[in-house]
Amino acid sequence: MAEKIFLKSKKGFFGEDKGDFHAFGGQYVPEILYPALKELEKAYKKILFSKEFQREFKELLAEFVGRPTPLIYAKNASKILQNQIYLKFEGLANTGAHKINNAIGQVLLAKKMGKTRIIAETGAGQHGLAVSAACAKLGLECVVFMGSRDVKRQFPNVFNMQLLGAKVIGVESGSQTLKDAVNEALREWSKDSKNTFYVLGSALGPYPYPDIVREFQSVISKELKTQTKQFFKGNPDIMVACVGGGSNAMGFFRHYLEDREVTLVGIEAGGMSKEKGKNAIRMGNANAHLGIIQGYKSYFLSDNYGNLLETYSISAGLDYAGIGPQLAHLKEIGRVKFSSSSDKEALEALEFFARNEGIIAALESSHALAGALSIAKKVKNKKILVNVSGRGDKDIFITAKALQKDRWSEFLANEIAEMRGQ
Known about the structure:
Blueprint: E1 20-21, E2 24-25, H1 34-47, H2 51-65, E3 71-73, H3 75-81, E4 84-89, H4 99-112, E5 117-122, H5 126-138, E6 141-147, H6 148-153, H7 155-163, E7 167-171, H8 178-191, E8 196-199, H9 209-217, H10 219-227, E9 238-242, H11 247-253, E10 263-271, E11 288-293, E12 296-301, H12 325-332, E13 336-342, H13 343-357, H14 363-376, E14 383-388, H15 396-403, H16 405-421
Parallel strand pairs: 4-14, 5-6, 5-8, 6-7, 9-10, 9-14, 10-13
Antiparallel strand pairs: 1-2, 3-4, 11-12
Helix pairs in contact: 2-4, 4-5, 4-9, 5-7, 9-11, 10-11, 13-14, 15-16
């Protein structure tokens, strides 16, 4: 008998009625989108847990995504930090991050539903890249919405999306970042939901998206339940993941929520400072308010009138004003603790693990690594498990400028001169 991939939700953590995670979640959308969401909910419940879908999904995870991804014992870092540090390296998955787990799952679901066109939003570009790859693999048209500001700072991912056959549309409205890309994707979906499927990249949005994304990403923690046995008995003491919308964190935490002895920690983007508009900290921030935006109820960085505030992070994937409803609920009941890492701390963690473990993490993941470094200074001999949700290739235009500005400027100048001379 084939082993089931997905878990049924348990009371106490997740709601079962329209995605109401107690005070959070829900389905708050224009009336025109209700039929599409109803169709998605029906397909999700019927198809996702079927033996046929699970078989095909498992095959794609193994043969296309390259799962399982490794769990690495960070021996050198462990010695320095006097704790046992383990890294779940999602960066070795196809397209370089955890995003492919959800992308290939949703695109496969869309194909089963008879959809021919896929649309998606993206911040750092990893979700857009993953969806583009999934569409190329399964033969569906792909359109990706991306804030114009993110297009400029994530050119490698934009180039690769286009190489995979996707159409990338830069969003000029608002702050030109992830929240604006989400708005445009929802508008596009409302125009043609009959043939179009919206692949949402994070564990947020209107029900049933938070559930769908959580379950596709739960393959991360499912693998960990087996992988940790080769290193130690029982569970880790502390698990750390970065948090933007929440997809990697929910997948990483999913199979450990019932294990109360495991401390779960989400790390947000501390940005340049705690000043308004200089970070993307939602939890415990006086500027974060309970609101209903982009189809769901959660905490958002907003003013007293409900307008979203400007956010900032060196990491495009964490530069978002809201947080997934499930994580908001888990924070409220005390199951997940939250902290933040600044740009500076993330860059320092990036360098530390590159030089001591030979791993170049994505800037998003570097926030989690920075959080782990901070935790390790306060405890001893603990088993600390970190989700390295992606690798740092995509960030070269940001990290090189931040860490080796003069040499990077010289390199770019030479490249431009050479191109003009051709």
